[in-house]
Fold Heme ABC exporter, ATP-binding protein CcmA.
Amino acid sequence: MTTQVDRNDATRLGHDPVLTARALTKRYGWRTVLNRIDLTVHAGECLAILGPNGAGKTTLLRLLVGLVRPTSGSIEWFGRPAGDFGPAVRAQLGVVMHRIMLDPELTVAENLRYYARLYGVIDAAERIRALGEELGLTDRLGDRVRSLSRGFQQRAALARALLHRPRVLLLDEPDTGLDIASRIRLVDLVERFCADGGTVLMTTHAPELAIQLAQRAIYLERGRIVWSARGRDELDLHLRIQPRLVTV
Ligand SMILES: Nc1ncnc2c1ncn2[C@@H]1O[C@H](COP(=O)(O)OP(=O)(O)OP(=O)(O)O)[C@@H](O)[C@H]1O
């Protein structure tokens, strides 16, 4: 089991930031959805992005993966401007958003094979088998995505995100629809991913998931970071004095 001391050990984290966002701002018409967000994330770190409905959490992830352009501000991945989010950047990012980004008419395996080709995964068959096992999907690989329950669709989305061995996982409410066993699997998977030097940015409405997984959390409200906490004790304290989050 990973101890809290391990997870808070800053020396374990890489020195060069994996992600640097500066003054990141997004407006839709007159509405400022994200307001000058500054964020630096290092290798091996799991960052939880918390906040009430409509705070801007999903928008932040969408900007960071290049699905939406910022109104102003900059994003650097691996020390380089993300620019137009070309293949070199995208190859390093594994993304799970609300939309599962799988073809509902294809089977899980067909979807994964398609993405494997897209990302040039050489050992696709073995990789799909291993991920199926890791995510408890083996018996569902031959099922059409549209026939799967929400929880299994979420597992398939996680498999797709991990397929090309990205260095960073960006997960928008990854626990959505997962049963207790799958949540435990998710925690285990994220812990191992970070222990291997991977970086995770994860939005969640589940305080216990943030406390369990994240070395650091930021709390967004109306597009601004209103607090951030490092380590389980600090996060726990913030969540206790922030009853709004716990009741969301
Ligand atoms: N394409 C868009 N056009 C206009 N407004 C948008 C668009 N996308 C998001 N917004 C607005 O931006 C705000 C932040 O939305 P976002 O989905 O980022 O919040 P969130 O913190 O992820 O919320 P939730 O916890 O409910 O998922 C909301 O007020 C939303 O209506």
